[in-house]
């Protein structure tokens, strides 16, 4: 690891995620036998969202669409604890990782110790200058800290970007990932990262010594002001921290061939940065549909991945590409990690799915296919449930009516006949494992088709398992819902049971226990590649999971008025009881006074009787 020469006049770099937290990350990496991107040692040590950002392979998805660009000479500005550095190093390019924190730089070096093509330098961005220029310079989650941790003045972001631009060769690109201060989730009440204050960026509360984020036009403008006017923008979903999908501008075009809504809405519930206490002000899934239809999705995206160069040649390959979107499934055994690309070919949308690693699949009672199916046009069936649950006054019957066509489609595929006349213990093919509403498209009125059928169990499944798996996953994927009709259960299992009961399908406790046991085993095979077992936290989640219900202002006001009335009533009761207690106390004191007086009189009479009147 390289350190710069310094005369001590520059203040020490103080950014940290917390000393205890970083020491824990350091210990985990030091103890890991495997420090690769997909290390099971590291993934197994994740304990929360913050640790996932440093240890999960999902973090590297942000650069996967730029894999070819990143195989050259790359400068990473702000390497943190080395998760992105590890990915870049494994691509095989010449990587220089710059980190101003000595402790974090040492963790980066530890994470990449076996990669000879990675050089770690402990230095500030604004002070660093390399003799040889770079093909790619990255700033992943760095620019927002410019005013806090650089010594460049009030417009530190301009100086940092200018210095980054100076490191590029003529056709090189600067790659920036950053949150959008006008991201949709921030309008819904999500607190802005680093300050934990809702509407902080929406209201423009930034100052000369705070974090700083930008809207899309602002970001393009400041990049242009430092000579990086050739730009392409991608949109990570749900956020750049842990993206599972990325869309291009072509993919977001509401007039184009590609339907972006399933990705925009389907990733809302996978936002790990959402605090437990947050109830969004509106349905993010429903809002994305309206925003996309009106061509506003780029401006209201939660994050940006912007690729900027000095000349059009720098981004020409990206501009000419026909890529629309990517979807990544990497939180699995490495042999099963996949990347799905959506692209235009002759004016038609095509899909291509590839394995992310070359690791051989273990022998398991489940098989995995990456065969490319056709791109299905239509309405994602799950979005019908989103609409149902976001209609005020919805009920279990509405969920029942939505679920019935999907259940009938499953039964037809398994040659079982109408679901109402069947035993839920009937066997169905293991190939139906992935036939969920989340993988179901209505391609014509009343005609359902299934896609992304990756997984097949070697043994048969029960009908109850397929139904429970599909409905529980669909309900749990809805991030929030409107107020339901009175008496509607909000516990997902109870709502599911009630909805099926209305179709004369009875789900018993035994069905639920068998579903939990089998799903737990299958997921452990897929994610760990080892002997299946039931995971206690997941079991607890399934049994206790509830829908998140939004409360509108009028209902909230009514609740507050009811609470005030109840409080006033309680105060009146307390005052009445206090008066009664005071009266009882007065009566008791009077009784005690009379009792003492009578006792004294008896003692005097007894004394006189014993000793005589003269005593």
From TrEMBL:
Pfam families with a match to the protein in the record? Methyltransf_12 (PF08242)
Instruction: Tell whether S-adenosyl-L-methionine is among the UniProt keywords.
Output: yes
Xref: InterPro entries = Methyltransf_12 (IPR013217), SAM-dependent_MTases_sf (IPR029063)
Gene Ontology molecular function = methyltransferase activity
| Chain ranges of the Methyltransferase type domain | 75-174
What keywords are annotated for this sequence in UniProt?
A: Methyltransferase, S-adenosyl-L-methionine, Transferase
One Gene Ontology term from the biological process aspect of the record? methylation
Task: Return the protein name.
Answer: Methyltransferase
Q: Which organism is it from?
A: Achromobacter mucicolens
């Amino acid at each position: 690891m390289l350190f710069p020469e310094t005369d001590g006049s520059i203040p020490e770099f103080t950014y940290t995620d917390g000393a205890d937290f970083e020491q824990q990350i350091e210990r985990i990496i030091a103890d890991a036998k495997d420090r690769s991107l997909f290390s099971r040692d590291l993934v197994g040590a994740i304990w929360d969202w913050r640790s996932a950002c440093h240890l999960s392979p999902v973090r590297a998805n942000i650069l996967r669409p730029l894999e070819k660009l990143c195989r050259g000479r790359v400068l990473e500005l702000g390497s943190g604890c080395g998760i992105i550095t590890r990915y870049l190093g494994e691509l095989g390019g010449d990587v220089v990782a710059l980190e101003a924190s000595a402790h974090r730089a040492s963790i980066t070096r530890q994470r990449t110790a076996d990669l000879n093509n990675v050089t770690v330098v402990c230095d500030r961005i604004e002070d660093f200058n390399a003799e040889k220029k770079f093909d790619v310079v990255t700033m992943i989650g760095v620019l927002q800290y410019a005013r806090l941790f650089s010594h460049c003045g009030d417009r530190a972001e301009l100086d940092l970007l200018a210095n980054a631009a100076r490191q590029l060769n003529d056709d090189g690109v600067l790659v920036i990932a950053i949150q959008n201060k006008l991201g949709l989730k921030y309008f819904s009440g999500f607190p802005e990262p680093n300050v934990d204050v809702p509407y902080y960026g929406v209201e423009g509360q930034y100052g000369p010594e705070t974090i700083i984020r930008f809207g899309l036009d602002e970001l393009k403008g400041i990049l242009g002001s430092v000579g990086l006017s050739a730009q392409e923008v991608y949109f990570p979903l749900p956020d750049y921290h842990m993206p599972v999908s990325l869309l291009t501008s072509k993919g977001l075009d509401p007039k184009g061939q590609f339907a972006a809504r399933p990705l925009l809405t389907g990733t809302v519930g996978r936002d790990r940065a959402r605090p437990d206490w947050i109830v969004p002000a509106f349905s993010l899934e429903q809002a994305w549909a309206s925003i996309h239809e009106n061509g506003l999705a780029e401006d209201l995206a939660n994050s940006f991945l912007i690729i900027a160069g000095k000349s059009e040649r720098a981004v020409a390959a990206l501009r000419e590409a026909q890529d629309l979107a990517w979807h990544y499934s990497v939180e699995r055994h490495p042999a099963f990690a996949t990347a799905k690309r959506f692209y235009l070919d002759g004016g038609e949308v095509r899909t291509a799915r590839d394995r992310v690693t070359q690791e051989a699949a273990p022998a398991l009672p489940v098989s995995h296919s990456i065969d490319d199916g056709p791109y299905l046009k239509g309405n994602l069936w799950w979005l019908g449930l989103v609409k149902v649950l976001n209609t005020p006054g919805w009920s279990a019957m509405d969920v029942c009516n939505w679920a019935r066509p999907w259940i009938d489609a499953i039964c037809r595929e398994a040659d079982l006949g109408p679901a109402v006349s069947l035993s839920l213990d009937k066997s169905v093919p293991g190939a139906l494992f992935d036939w969920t509403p989340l993988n179901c498209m209505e391609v014509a009125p009343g005609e359902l088709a299934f896609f992304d059928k990756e997984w097949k169990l070697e043994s048969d499944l029960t009908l109850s398992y397929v139904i429970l798996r599909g409905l529980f996953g669909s309900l749990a994927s809805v991030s929030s819902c409107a107020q339901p009709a009175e008496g509607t259960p909000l516990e997902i299992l109870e709502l599911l049971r009630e909805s099926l009961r209305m179709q004369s399908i009875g789900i018993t406790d035994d069905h639920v226990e068998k579903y939990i046991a089998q799903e737990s085993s299958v997921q452990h095979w897929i994610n760990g590649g080892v002997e299946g077992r039931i995971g206690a936290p997941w079991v607890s989640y399934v049994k206790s999971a509830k829908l998140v219900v939004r409360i509108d202002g009028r209902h909230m006001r009514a609740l507050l008025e009811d609470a005030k009335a109840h409080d006033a009533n309680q105060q009146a009761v307390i005052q009445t009881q206090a008066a009664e207690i005071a009266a009882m106390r007065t009566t008791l004191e009077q009784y005690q006074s009379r009792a003492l007086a009578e006792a004294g009189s008896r003692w005097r009479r007894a004394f006189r009787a014993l000793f005589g009147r003269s005593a």
